[in-house]
Design a protein that fits this description.
2 domains; single chain; alpha+beta; seven-stranded antiparallel sheet
């Protein structure tokens, strides 16, 4: 039967119209025309701007910033760790989540982390060679440069190589983290040589030199994956780990793969949120909590009511996190259900405005906490490409072990596994079988790099902070939706609830006394005198004025945000 070609032609026209950039309708500028970088360390921010001004795109800059942070902020991330990078490519709208999380070595055996009585030996799970998973950070940088960048890897790594070779002055944040881990790091001569050459904590301004790391980075720059995961560097890593009591094998490194995952996407009040899927819990926690509170008119409620409802949402989201989420390559998870509006409506039905829900009354779960010493950067380039990158080595200075001859400071992410079911990890919380260690498995994380695309503005947002990462991003996202600036978003006082323990944590002065009293009257327990936490970095593209802005968290003295006109 002959059919008119009109329906097919009409369909193609509709598809074409939807694929056109919004600028075709005069609503949104095609490109910002400037660059914005915000990161936890000003030298890393400078590295990103340097690469952008040399003709690189946001992905080249992300390689430069990630690498530089690994050199100048080794307390939080580095080539012996891992991370997640959320990318948006302006040319075709592609959004992808690069999973560079560490994995368990093939010889992993939970029994190795137990003492003679069968109890978890915390020293083995957080300090030294057994504490380290196979790093993903170097592989992710190579992957990003080769598949998304426009400059050679060698050029994007040049600022980090220079910082490792010529050194950088020690500043207060890194010095404080070194002081926390000094006793452990002094166990290892290779760690002592880099960070404590005299055995004492160096003075502020001391130049930190890392010649071995510079040589490792040069091999990575020249040979790509093979320069780290095979050959001289790989042999030195395996020999050093095994000499220190670890169980790595050459095949562990050679087999490492970066995984491209589809980001988790959902809508909140007319804003598209693009965030981290498992093995991060962040996107699921964000979606569940925001879907719950979307059922209320938060703007018309009192501050105490808003905090109460957000806490009740957090409580239920973290309950699900605790016993459902894990590595998607090993664990089946009902992500669509957990992030659906219908599921949130069911959870919302159990919330009372006048009473707190005791966590003990919800189905039991076991809270799993991610690492607390992590870092984040946000980038938007002149073409509208975007990167949100969050990286970690878990505890400050990771495992404390610099592998001899490599300059690589190893992570202690193995403690993020449930090494023994229902036994607290380093942060006092317990895990379940969904996050049990298995060869090649990625440990569950809280890192939550996120894009928020509103009607008029776009934000790139993220932060370190262990299990508090998702709630910090949540609060920042709500500030963005309410029209706040980048500076206001990163400066917002923070509170947090994670199901267990059943306590609202709050920064000092985060809540006035009357709000605290109202929450206590509803049955909440509040710890409102905690030290500041997190280190959020945000960049915003205001598409109405076609301007970029950025802000670094004022809680850290060494972070920075720079907006520069495009140099080409």
């Amino acid at each position: 039967m002959n059919r008119s070609p009109f329906p097919h032609a009409l369909f193609r026209l509709i598809v074409l119209l939807f694929c056109l950039p919004v600028t075709a309708f005069g609503v949104e500028p095609a490109r910002p025309g400037a660059h914005a970088v915000a990161s936890a360390q000003h030298l890393a921010t400078d590295a990103g701007i340097e690469i952008l001004q040399a003709g690189g795109n946001a992905f080249d800059a992300a390689v430069a910033v990630s690498a530089a942070l690994g050199v100048v902020e080794p307390s939080s991330s580095g080539f012996g760790g891992g991370g997640f990078w959320l990318l948006h490519r302006a040319g075709d709208g592609k959004q992808v989540f690069l999973d560079g999380r560490e994995v368990a070595p093939a010889a992993v055996d939970a029994a190795q982390y137990m003492d003679t009585s069968g109890n978890l030996d915390r020293d083995k799970s957080v300090n030294g060679a057994l504490a380290a998973g196979i790093p993903g950070h170097p592989a992710a940088l190579v992957h990003m440069a080769e598949h998304y960048g426009r400059l050679p890897l060698k050029q994007s790594l040049a600022p980090a190589i220079r910082l490792a070779e010529k050194g950088f002055p020690l500043e207060s944040r890194l010095r404080d983290m070194m002081a926390m881990r000094r006793e452990v790091m002094l166990r290892y001569p290779s760690s002592k040589a880099v960070f404590f050459p005299t055995g004492d904590l160096p003075e502020l301004g001391t130049v930190i030199l890392q010649p071995d790391l510079a040589r490792t980075l040069k091999r990575l720059a020249k040979q790509g994956m093979r320069g780290f995961y095979e050959g001289k560097t790989a042999r030195a890593l395996v020999d050093g780990v095994r000499a220190a009591g670890g169980n790595w094998q050459l095949e562990d490194l050679k087999a490492y793969k970066v995984i491209e995952r589809d980001p988790l996407r959902f809508n909140y009040r007319g804003n598209q949120v693009v965030s981290a899927p498992p093995p991060s819990s962040g996107g699921v926690v964000l979606a569940t909590t925001l879907n719950i509170v979307e059922g209320y008119d938060l703007a018309r409620l009192t501050a105490a009511d808003r905090t109460h409802l957000l806490v009740e949402g957090m409580r239920r989201a973290y309950r699900d996190r605790s016993y459902i989420l894990g590595d998607p390559d090993f664990v089946d998870m009902p992500i669509k259900r957990l992030t659906s509006k219908d599921y949130a409506a069911g959870l919302r039905a159990g919330i009372r405005l006048d009473r707190a829900t005791p966590s003990s009354s919800l189905p039991e779960g076991a809270a799993i906490l991610g690492g607390t010493d992590t870092t984040h950067f946000s980038i938007i380039d002149a073409d509208g490409n975007m990167v949100a990158g969050t990286m970690s080595v878990n505890l400050p200075m990771g495992s404390g072990l610099v592998v001899p001859g490599t300059g690589v400071l190893l992570n202690n992410e193995m403690d993020d596994f449930a090494l023994k079911p229902n036994v607290p990890n380093a942060y006092g919380l317990i895990g379940t079988d969904a996050n049990a260690p298995v060869a090649g498995k990625r440990m569950l994380s809280s890192m939550s790099p996120t894009f928020v695309i509103g009607p008029d503005r776009t934000a790139v947002i993220g932060t370190p902070g262990g299990s508090r990462i998702a709630t910090m991003v949540l609060l920042g996202l709500l500030e963005f939706v309410d029209g706040r600036s980048a500076t206001e978003i990163v400066s917002r006082p923070r509170f947090h609830h994670q199901y267990l323990p059943d306590v609202i944590s709050a920064e000092a002065d985060a809540m006035p006394r009357e709000e605290i009293k109202s929450l206590q009257d509803r049955g909440h327990t509040i710890n409102d005198g905690e030290r500041p936490w997190g280190n959020m970095h945000v960049v915003i593209w205001d598409r109405r004025s076609n301007t970029l802005s950025g802000a670094a968290d004022p809680r850290s003295a060494v972070g920075s945000a720079r907006v520069e006109a495009a140099g080409r």
